[in-house]
Amino acid sequence: MFNRLSRRHFARIAGWSALGLSTISAESAQADSRRSLPSGFPRNFLWGTATSAYQIEGAVNEDGRGPSIWDRFAHTDGKIGDHSTADVANDHYHRYKEDVQLIKALGAKAYRFSIAWPRVFPEGTGSPNPKGLDFYDRLLDELLANGIEPFATLYHWDLPQALQDRFGGWMSRDTSKAFADYAGYVAAHLSDRVKKIFTINECHRLVYSGYGAGIDAPGLSLPPQELNQVMHHVALGHGLAAQAVRAHGRTGTRVGPAENLVVCIPAIETPANIRATEIATRELNAGYLTVILEGKYTDGFLAYAGKNAPKYTAEDLKVISSPIDFVGLNIYLPHHYVVAADNKSGFSLLPFPSTFPHMESDWLKIGPEAMYWAPRQVAKLWNVKSIYITENGASASDQPAADGNIYDLDRIMYLRNYLTQLQRATSEGVPVRGYFLWSLMDNFEWTDGFEKRFGLYRVDFKTQRRTPKLSASFYREVIERNKVV
Ligand code: BG6
């Protein structure tokens, strides 16, 4: 839907050159004054790293874990670029103590990991598997003993295969309900030690890549109405889970989503473009953050979806917009540069030139301003008081130099620029409380297998040896000085 919407708007940008030059220069001057940054991040700013269960744990058949849709998908011929699976991955299930030391060595005080639903409920529902939860018990104890605050994500895409087989996964609201039961169970058992819980990682990607484009598990390409229905069930799952965490978590347990919102940036920082960008952000995130934070689908979305709109009740919308304590944002790239337009929507999305730079992954365009505008818009549009950057990071070639070290200067360049923009945001009072770098270590990067590396630590997947890259030293320095270095 969004791609088609984007294309529609690309067609309407012809008038962009009508933007007044005088307006631009006056605004540039204002923007310049905003750019004189104080030197550091707020006191108590939380620095962390992030991983997810399926990407690092391995041990897929151990201690009663059930199969997930990603096990099935990775074992299907032709789905993973390098024909690998995550059966072993980083063997984190057995090496978690060593990995906690890697976090500690960075000086990071927080760690975002995910809990594998099929470890806890191998069949998705029904009887819990106590050994599955035991692993997270051990991990939490280890983190806390090392002074690292745990942040748990309940769903980072590893749906129990049984739910796919029984209900078609998120095609059914039965999966949303099962998710809530699992969420409540985890909150009841682990919230004595984990106080911050994210419901779903990246609703947007799991729906469109998993059920629309068919490139992620479960590999489906549904027609528009069914796809919008999946989107609705995922948002509903988030809301039901948020309620369950509140109902079953101990006092002080906090909950929110971790979303890869569609990031819109004013092409030039004029008041008109900034306003147009806010409108675009609200519309282009209609199915997730907007409905979660407003309790309704936008008129623009409903008009565009027409007969393909999801079927829902007023009660659903109430559930989806259940109170949350913070918003997590995964920010990697600029999705759109926006200008104001004299059209029905009020904005136009500019086409990207073919020379626009990207990191090793083709999709990972380099647009550091994303890290300023996205949290600023979320705070402003929806009056959000607490934001975490739940993921940000980059793939790089990471070839060892002659001396064996990894001088990942391109990753450092990327991080330095994004963090500079984050600092711009916090210095203006945008309420970003912490930042989780993706990723602690190289891992199974979904359909790229082990071909793409995002880690601060290089992992040799034959020996499981972890070696810090230069970016690990960079990040340690940032953390220690609480400023961009
Ligand atoms: C984020 C995911 O979208 O992007 C991570 O939350 C993922 O799990 C990261 O590893 C990089 O994406 P990819 O597709 O290159 O593995």
Question: What would you say this structure looks like, in words?
Answer:
The chain is 43% helix and 13% strand. By secondary structure, it is an alpha/beta fold. The strands form 3 sheets. Strands 1-2-3-4-5-7-10-11 form an 8-stranded parallel barrel, surrounded by 6 helices. Strands 6-8-9 form a 3-stranded mixed beta sheet. It has a two-stranded antiparallel sheet with strand order 12-13. Helix 10 (203-212) packs antiparallel against helix 11 (224-248). The structure holds 6-O-phosphono-beta-D-glucopyranose (BG6).
Task: Break the fold down into its secondary structure elements and pairings.
Elements (H helix, E strand, L loop, with lengths): L1 H9 L10 H15 L10 E5 L2 H4 L12 H6 L17 H15 L3 E5 L2 H4 L9 H16 L3 E7 L5 H7 L5 H18 L5 E6 L1 H10 L11 H25 L5 E6 L4 E3 L4 H14 L1 H9 L4 H7 L8 H7 L6 E4 L5 E5 L6 E3 L20 H13 L4 E6 L16 H19 L4 E7 L18 E4 L4 E4 L1 H12 L4
Parallel strand pairs: 1-2, 1-11, 2-3, 3-4, 4-5, 5-7, 6-8, 7-10, 10-11
Antiparallel strand pairs: 8-9, 12-13
Helix pairs in contact: 5-7, 9-11, 10-11, 11-13, 11-15, 12-13, 16-17
6-O-phosphono-beta-D-glucopyranose binds next to loops.
